Amino acid sequence: MEEWKLSVGSVREAVLSRLANMLDNSTCGWRQLANVVSEQPRFHYSENELTSFSLQVLSSAGSPARSLLAGLADRSCSLDFLLQCLKKIDHQEAVQYLITTVTQMIRITVHPQSQQASEGSKVILTCRATGPPGLSYQWFRGKDEILDETGRTPELVLCPLAPLHQGHYICRVNNGENCIFSQWAHVCLVHSAGSSPGYSSSLFPGSVSGLRIIHQPQSQAVSEGNTLSLECLAEANPPAQYEWYHNMEPMPQHKTRSLRIPCVTTAHRGQYSCKVYNLYHKAWTDPAKVTIGPSSFTDVSWVEVDRGPDSQETHISTSPMGIDPVQQMTSPP
Asked: What is the full DSSP assignment across 45-101?
């Protein structure tokens, strides 16, 4: 099975902690396991390293076995090799637990792919996984769970595609308490010439003209007095021209692909976007949110919190299993 080729570090922390509890003993435990794994030179531990592991017992939460497992994970020890070593020291409980855990592991075999499509068309994002029977799927756009009928299937269907569908998507595959997230996929809406203002076609195969934004300005936080730098880049034929906007107001002095504002103040906070155009097409970048913080916060990051109508912080719970995807999945690119 492919799962057994995975690294020890690929399993959940709860699994490694449970194995460590089983191995934290002197008769059939972590020292015996360390001796066996050392038969492979890259998993050999010096006496000083073994002493360092054993000293973990002096900490209230320390575990010599957990330190050994962390070292094996750092050296890319496979689950199969760990299983064979546990069998050699005849630790039946750990062997059975590892077998049960790996057979219940979820592995994503098909990740959703980023796509560009025109308004009104159909986009299908696909996520497929292997694992124990009864896998379930949950799709999210950003932090928001998609609750329509395809939002809980391996294939998320966006049809007819509309501006509200633009964004980053991720799929969570669940089985009981086990879950795993796919990679992020970005859905971008493109329009042919003559469609709604502010959008453009991509460079369509076989067409003479076209325009496609290939680098979007990025949201960022800047301290007062520092320089704000935003970049936009497009592939276009004829060549593209650029116009920057701040809170949808034009910035007449900024008509190149790079926007630089030295010595920013709080007046510069807000949303920035760039209009890219040529003789036949035009397109808008995604808005980039710029936050301006006090200059005294040189080593501190800050977060602006969207608040609800009653001035309460708005928190969205998307997981019926009590797992906050914000804590477990990486931020969209």
From this structure: --HHHHHHHHGGGGSTT--HHHHHHHHHHHTT-BHHHHHHHHHHTT-HHHHHHHHHH
Q: Look over the chain and give the mean of its residue pLDDT values, rounded to a whole number.
A: 82
CA dist 86 and 80 (Å) reads 10
Of 274, 269, 273, 270, the closest CA to residue 287 belongs to 273
The residue written with tokens 């007046």 in the block is 267
What count of other Cβ atoms lies within 10 Å of the Cβ of residue 232? 24
Tell me the C-alpha distance between 210 and 277, whole Å: 10
Residue 103, helix vs strand vs coil: helix
Alpha carbon 95 to its chain's center: 33
Decide: 195 and 283 in contact? Cβ < 8 Å: no
Helix boundaries (H) for the chain: 13-23, 30-37, 47-54, 64-74, 79-88, 92-103, 325-328
More confident: 197 or 263: 263
Is this structure's pTM higher than 0.90?
Answer: no
Q: Are 208 and 181 in contact (CB under 8 A)?
A: no
**Rounded distance, CA 258 to CA 233, Å?**
9
Pairwise CA distance, residues 188 & 212, whole Å: 11
Identity of the highest mean pLDDT range in 114-118, 138-142, 178-182: 138-142
* Tokens standing for residue 5: 């080729």
